[in-house]
Amino acid sequence: MTSMRLIRRSSALSHGQYMSRNLTLNCKQTCFVQPSRLMGHCVSRDDFNIQRCRDEVASTHALADLASGGGEVSWEQPHARWHWLDGELSSNIAGETGAVYIYRGAASALSLRESLLSRAIEPDVSRFVHEHMEAEAAHLELFELLLPQSKRTRLLPVWRLSGWVLGFAPALVSPRALYLTVQAVETFVEEHYMEQIVPLEQQGRCPELVKLLRACCADEVHHKDDAADRAQGPPGLLERAWMAVVRKGSAVAAEVARRI
């Protein structure tokens, strides 16, 4: 059973101040809702009240503005300051953008391998790429509907390129390399979503947004487990080193997307 350490933001979701506390959580238990792929469809705008999510985020933003002594500036205004939740949602749209492009890069690599090797790629590998890409594209659509342009990371072209390369390179090497890369990425993404879900739930904030985050997180856990199963065996020393680099790079990218 996988456990992780999370940093809890105190009531400072509205105060704009942070207090750290270590929480050990069972991610399988806390993140789980039925993955959308197993329900036969991808998550979509019809599964959530996006306007309610926007209202919840705007209300949380207004409380944070008030507590920090800022003026009453609408969350959607381009010059409105960013608070904790704004940064987290910005990093979500960066991550989902990167995820879509990971699978686009992987699809390109599979096509190239097929041409170079003069043989068809295994259907399971191609299905893995396209099913996961469909789910990530659905997640990205949700965050695009939720976030105004002023609350999105300005580095989306960077996340597209880096995601494409991160999918293309390992898929060109082997299916196993792709699976281990996806497993590493999704291990970080699960932790990233839980770092938002846990404090929001503890503060009783944004229930509709939490519902959305939990659904996306459940899909990511499914992707992680699917990739691990397909890899067929624990990673070796060099593979573990690569996976650590991927997780660290994902964490750095998320932190940058929170700020820029």
Structural descriptors:
single chain, 260 residues, 9 helices, 2 strands
Average predicted confidence as pLDDT: 82
Q: Count the strands? A: 2
- What is the oligomer described by this structure? single chain
Classify the helix fraction into a percent range.
55-70%
Sheet/helix structural class:
mainly alpha
Unreliable runs, pLDDT <50, ≥5 residues? 1-29, 36-40
Cα radius of gyration in angstroms: 19 Å
Explain what this protein looks like in three dimensions.
Helices cover 69% and strands 4% of the residues. The protein contains nine helices and two strands. It is elongated, with a radius of gyration of 19 Å. Helix 4 runs parallel beside helix 6, helix 4 packs across helix 9 and helix 7 runs antiparallel to helix 8. It has a two-stranded antiparallel sheet. It is mainly alpha-helical and 260 residues long.
SSE diagram, text form:
Blueprint: E1 3-7, H1 12-15, E2 22-26, H2 27-31, H3 50-67, H4 84-117, H5 123-146, H6 156-173, H7 175-203, H8 207-231, H9 237-259
Antiparallel strand pairs: 1-2
